[in-house]
Design goal:
Keywords: Cell membrane, Membrane, Transmembrane, Transmembrane helix. This is Putative RDD family membrane protein YckC. Pfam families: RDD. This protein has seven helices and two strands, in the order H-H-H-H-E-H-H-H-E. With about 140 residues, the protein is mainly alpha-helical. The chain has one domain. It has a two-stranded antiparallel ribbon with strand order 1-2. About 25% of the residues are buried.
Amino acid sequence: MYPGERLGLPDSGSRSIGRIGRRIGALLIDYTAATIIATGFLGFNQFALPTEAGLTQFAPLLVFALLQIIFIPVVGGSPGHRIVGMRLVRMDGGWIGVWRPLVRTLLLILVIPAVIWDADQRGLHDKAVGTVLIRA
């Protein structure tokens, strides 16, 4: 049984489950973009000691979360998702809405729900909001 078969998705190609390589690539793209934006606009200094950084040490994480929350309902995925050829969809096919990206992102930044997967390679953050990350 391949990932996504129980969900009625194909084994490969368009609409198949987004695999780990693409997911990691998208995460690296998104977090790099968030760090660049945080450095340029929010005064984030990646070389500052934690005692010197204050709240700016969380700036990349805040920007990362905002990118997820804004882009997912508008274009169907974060910038990283779209660049590597994936999109986030609801299991029932409807519009992703606003609350799903918000809850999904909050769970994503906690890390643990995102690294616990089921047999279909859906993280707990996606299962909680009824979404699946597929190839576009």
